[in-house]
Amino acid sequence: MNSARIRFRFADLGTEVSISPENVPEGTWADFAQTLLAHGGRPDSRGIILSRSALRRASLDLGSLLKHHDLAADYEENVRHFLDLHAQETRARRNSEKDRKSLSRRDVERRVRASCRFRRALTETQLRDLGRLLAIMHGANFSVPGAGKTTALLAIYEAGVGAGAHDRLLVVGPKNAFLAWEDEIALCYESGNTPTLARLGGGRERVIEALGKNPEIALITYQLLPNVLDVVSEWCRRHKTHIVLDESHRIKAGRGGVLATAALELSDAAVRRDLLSGTPMPNAPGPSLADRVCVARSAHLSR
User: Fold this and answer.
1) Largest interatomic CA distance in the chain
2) Residues contacting 222, CB < 8 A, separation 6+
3) How far apart are CA 285 and CA 292, in angstroms?
4) What is the mean pLDDT of each run of 10 residues along the chain (303 residues)?
5) For the whole model, what pTM was predicted?
6) Any residues with CB less than 8 A from the CB of 164 and at least 6 apart, and which?
7) What fold characterizes domain 101-302?
């Protein structure tokens, strides 16, 4: 009986995955190690350590290697669940590109009002966009400035709250957008039933203190996120967190930029991800971005 296998285990706090050989020939493991290192892995005493997002990117290559070398994979249960979710999201993204279905206006209103907290009237344009966005797992709204993207995003979050899918919202954006978020939250929620809100800032200790008060909605800048990524990720994973990148064109550098890398690493702590931008994008999103969102392009862009 062949006992050779590749073991997948979460390391530390679950932010990284340890991949190690068991009775695997040295030459065979060299093939795996080369692939893992190419995806940003680093050696440790047992094998290779890979971030969660890097494991997503490497999953197809690893599957091909396992099949080519006729090796078994030994997955820790949490890693198996993580990879199953990745496969589910990949299928959902592909299906969304083929199936352009949208929810009816009535279904949108029913979902958004289910929590009995959201009070703001939605425009026909917002209802149209929400019909598409609520029909997919993750989304993006690239409407022109002033189209009501923030209100629509809060409506998506509230629909998730009403369905029990979300219980926290994290917004990553520029500091000059925070006041607009605070104003929109005040306008969208019933008086006395407004979610608790925290601006994360002032350094690592202040961020830990603010998150320790367990706000429902937290705002953080792109510049601060890389310095407190572990703290923010841990908070997100303790909850069912909807993560939003506002003015998401700021991560267009992809993994070549520090801010974009932090945002992409954070994405794996989300139960839902949404991008917002009123700035025109290139003709197509980059590969790392396309792997994470199902784009719902607003008709505003064609006007």
Assistant:
1) 67
2) 172, 173, 174, 250, 251, 259, 262, 263
3) 10
4) 84 82 93 93 91 87 92 91 84 76 94 95 94 91 85 97 96 94 95 94 94 96 94 94 92 74 87 85 50 41 33
5) 0.78
6) none
7) Rossmann fold (3.40.50)
